[in-house]
Specification:
The structure is a homodimer of 229-residue chains. The first copy, chain A, has 229 residues and is mostly helical. Chain A is built from eleven helices and no strands. In chain A, α4 crosses α11. At the A-B interface, α3, α9, α10 and α11 of A face α3, α9, α10 and α11 of B.
Chain lengths: 229, 229
């Protein structure tokens, strides 16, 4: 019985996601700051954000540790043109996955287990922009500060606030790194549609894995005990 | 000047590792519990270990989130025979990588930056056994408890104690997930040497990525704030 109810909740979530798709506004065009402001809560570059406790120097050491170099930056930037026309389909796959896994859909739902459709929609718009930002790989101070903010929005210190959402107030840490796998594995078929040679697609995919891993590390900062990060 | 000294420290670390290789004892044979006891600090299955705060039920949900299923368990177990004869060469690659990255070698070194050769050697023996345990993929309560202990041995609550080591007392959280990439990427050429078809090698590699990701999540538990995990 519980399994059936979970399935129903998941399908409800998927239906909400389908509505969200059709209602979505076009994502920001490159270099067009005006358009980006139409994405609710998208605060990359905002002066209001607190500074990341992780420095650019710390981040360079992390880049070296995951073997992310110039070739990866080029591959990420090359992936933008491949992925931008497919953003909605990618989000359908990712939202479909979240909707199919009750332990994940729970974080978009209130205490009674009802998914918050408005919240799902607002997050979806920023998630689409995140695909483009990941491909752009700017890795500047504003980017670092925004990663800190994204981490805070997963954690009880900041979840729901940007969207005035009616959902549980904390995403458990363990699911942040866990999602690296399904997000990057499901991206590969989309990277393959750009007409590049298999080794170029593989280079883009590996660069994406490294970048998502780095971002999840940054997002984890608010979860880690003082001095332990 | 600082870069030159870091390089010298790294090369010193590599020399220590080369010694460590020749001195290493044979790793445990499958099913031979007596032999396993010769690995210093290898406490898988020990009654003295505290129970993991992560339950087997929590772990099942994590497995589902990283898409780890029966096919992955088979692929991991198939990888054992491929990797076992290559354990020393794999460790040479991983230790060579750590030795080449000053920000990583620092965790095997004392406050003055001198690597602790005895500590490097003791960790190396357990690291070899870890390759076999990862391939075995038992995922029982004893395994879960030992993952918790491994996490504690990275964190200030337990680092250095098992080996009476003279090294800094805490590995910063951020390098645990970061190491997933170099560890799994460098494993693939070793998986390719088993004579399996490319798609079987790829299945083994993907299963390894999922397993290492799950383990790093478990090892992170001592770093995460109360209630946040």
């Amino acid at each position: 019985m519980k399994a059936v109810m979970s399935l129903a909740a998941a399908l409800g979530g998927l239906a909400l996601m389908a509505n969200a798709t059709s209602a979505q506004e076009p994502v920001k065009k490159k270099g067009d700051q005006e358009v980006s402001r139409t994405i609710h809560g998208y605060d990359y570059g905002s002066d209001r954000l607190p500074r990341s406790p992780v420095t650019l120097e710390d981040f360079e050491k992390l880049k070296a540790t995951v073997l992310l170099g110039e070739g990866d930056l080029n591959a990420l930037r090359k992936s933008r043109a491949v992925l931008e026309p497919q953003v909605d389909e990618i989000l359908d796959v990712w939202y479909g996955f979240v909707g199919s896994q009750p332990q994940l859909l729970a974080y978009f739902s209130n205490a009674a287990g009802k998914p918050d459709g408005d919240y799902l929609q607002k997050v979806r718009e920023r998630f689409g922009q995140w695909i483009l930002d990941t491909a752009d790989a700017r890795y500047d101070q504003a980017w670092l500060d925004y990663q800190y903010e994204i981490g805070r929005r997963h954690h009880r210190v900041g979840k729901n606030r940007a969207d005035d959402a009616d959902a549980v107030n904390h995403i458990h840490y363990r699911y942040l790194p866990a999602l690296i796998y399904p997000v990057t594995a499901t991206l590969k078929p989309f990277l393959e549609k750009g007409g590049f040679a298999p080794e170029e697609v593989e280079a883009m995919h590996q660069a994406w894995i490294k970048s998502v891993l780095l971002q999840v590390i940054l997002w984890s900062q608010p979860y880690v005990r003082e001095g332990d990060f």
